[in-house]
Backbone:
């Protein structure tokens, strides 16, 4: 989680996007790491998790990451959670909750309301990890005068 927080901090410092970082790990090896680049790329899908998953799939040469784990500084939004499911990542560790993200302006409540049908649940073990230390990144981002909520 320390490396995911470092990625988030890098994104904050560069002004690339919100205070989010992610990495994909296979065994003891970091396969990919990324931070949110929505503002840098002018791309609403350039979330840390999406970028890390795309990179890991390229590095490993396959779309399914069934033997990998995702670490992210915040509970994934529905789009990123979908990418986790499509990549078949069986486990993710997250720092802040989606409620924490909502408190600093990143609400995905409307997206969840679109997908309430919950037809087929995906088996995914989700484990909170390091929330307090990840919350400090949110606070750091919120205090910046140039932070942009999107």
Residues:
């Amino acid at each position: 989680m320390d490396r995911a927080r470092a990625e988030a901090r890098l994104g904050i410092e560069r002004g690339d996007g919100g205070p989010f970082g992610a990495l994909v790990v296979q065994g003891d090896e970091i396969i990919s790491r990324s931070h949110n680049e929505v503002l840098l790329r002018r791309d609403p899908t350039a979330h840390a998790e999406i970028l890390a998953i795309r990179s890991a799939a390229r590095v490993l040469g396959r779309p399914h990451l069934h033997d990998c784990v995702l670490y992210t500084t915040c509970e994934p939004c529905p789009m990123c959670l979908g990418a986790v499911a499509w990549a078949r990542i069986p486990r993710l560790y997250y720092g802040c909750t989606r409620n924490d993200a909502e408190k600093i302006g990143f609400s995905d409540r409307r997206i969840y309301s679109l997908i309430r049908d919950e037809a087929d649940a995906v088996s995914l073990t989700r484990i909170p990890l390091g929330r307090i230390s990840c919350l400090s990144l949110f606070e750091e981002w919120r205090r910046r005068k140039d932070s942009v909520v999107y």
Observations:
- The longest helix spans residues 2-14.
- DSSP finds seven helices and five strands in the chain.
- The domain at 2-143 is CATH 3.40.140.10 (Cytidine Deaminase; domain 2).
- The chain has one domain: 2-143.
